[in-house]
Amino acid sequence: MPQSKNSGSTWGSDLPAGLVVFLVALPLCLGIATASGATPLAGIIAGALGGILVGAISKSPLSVSGPAAGLVAIVLTALKDLNGSYQAFQVALIIAGLIQIVLGLLRLGAIANFVPNSVIKGMLAGIGVVIILKQIPHALGWDKEYEGDFGFVSKFGNTFTDIAKAAMTITPSALVIFLIGVVIIQFWDSKPMKSQGWTKYIPGPLVAVIVGALANTLLSGSRPDLALKSADMHLVTLPKTSELTAALTLPDWNAVQLPAVWITAITLAVVASLETLLSIDAADKLDDQRRATPTNLELVAQGVGNSFSGLLGGLPLTSVVVRTSANAYSGGKTKKSTIFHGVLLAVAAISIPSILNTIPLSVLASVLIMVGWKLTKPSVIKKVYSDGLDQFIPFLLTLLGVVFTDLLKGVIIGLLAGLVYVLKANHHKSFTLVNDGDLWLLRFNKDITFTNKVGLRNLLDTIPDNVKLVINGTKADFVDHDILEMVKDFAESGQYRGIDVELTDVEDKTWFINMRKHRQYLKEINNG
To answer: Going from the N-terminus, what domains does the chain have, and what CATH number goes with each?
Structure first.
């Protein structure tokens, strides 16, 4: 969908938002690269391409792409299967990107339309909860887990045991800097500050990060014993420029003949595409202008990004809800903010690593926790609850599934819950059964499929002996073959119970007419 007509006037909002997304994305790119067994440069390459290349091709105004925590396990498994050869993995990633391009050209992006709104809302709320829970240890100065780890199980236990460990070993300066960041963001978001026109050009999260970095720098000069140090993993840790450039690798094209490369490519293409489509749907929900993203083009954009990432030595990438949410809540209006964040990753990470390495992870935790809060605040949950249990139960199960498993599993759990409610509603509304004495009428209220078999069977079981049953299908343009077979079976068995079945406006009526004639013929013979 084309950008809004006012897109040329959004630089004042997009550039500051892009800067905030860059600050959030930088440690996530580094953390996910480390967890994937790759070099820091691999994460930077994926983040930069996700912003610049994917952002340029995509028509999503808010979506931000980059390395995703949900693909870490796939990368680790692939490297193991490929005997640790990252160059062979690069070939798999290039192929995965090409597969995504084909999926987009085949218009398979439409599968995103089959995910109910309640599930998408549950996914967003679940991610919000995960962000908060995962950032609490960083806020308390316990930085042993990598940034971007959103899985429930961790190498130290699980999300809750990590919080417990952090609570028992609080780093006071980290907690103070975190609280300063929260206060600044909240103050910037207050009505008095919002009424100041200039504040929209300087987002609160950016101010919080700058103040947090300056506070720790001043503390390093006055009380070095209390300051947060990179040696203790409390700060953003970006390698030197020489170390980054030395990590560049080229694909090993000989690996294209390995079965493991193709298995990895197909797995990456499928999982990355599903995560992207879910994230794109979520991004459209976060857009206050409710612009719809062309999902088929999005798959093509992601495929191009992944192929180039593989070519240059980067990690696989997807559209990512965390960065997208940070973009939306920082005032991003068009994809210029996404592209700008990618440019900053490419340039700043190489040119000013020493400055970026002064940023405490605890102040970034304040930014992310506030993003998580906006995704899952009580008013959001209350609104879904007011829509009814058929919306709230899939929402809640999706939320819990995302928190205790991962994004894809959580969504699958929500979809299954939603399907139960759909089937239940379908059964209640598909048929009407009424009677007047010995005359019974069963009406098909809409198209009938195999999913209605249980409901129809339950209704047919209530028909008493020695009555006439009229089945009316006027309102049904389609009646599934399984349903017709069930009605046939009931009509045949009904003759032994004295039930006379008549069809009106239902497919395959010829069979019933012949059956009724045969039944009349038998009666005449019996009556001699």
So the answer is: 10-402 (no CATH), 428-526 (3.30.750.24)
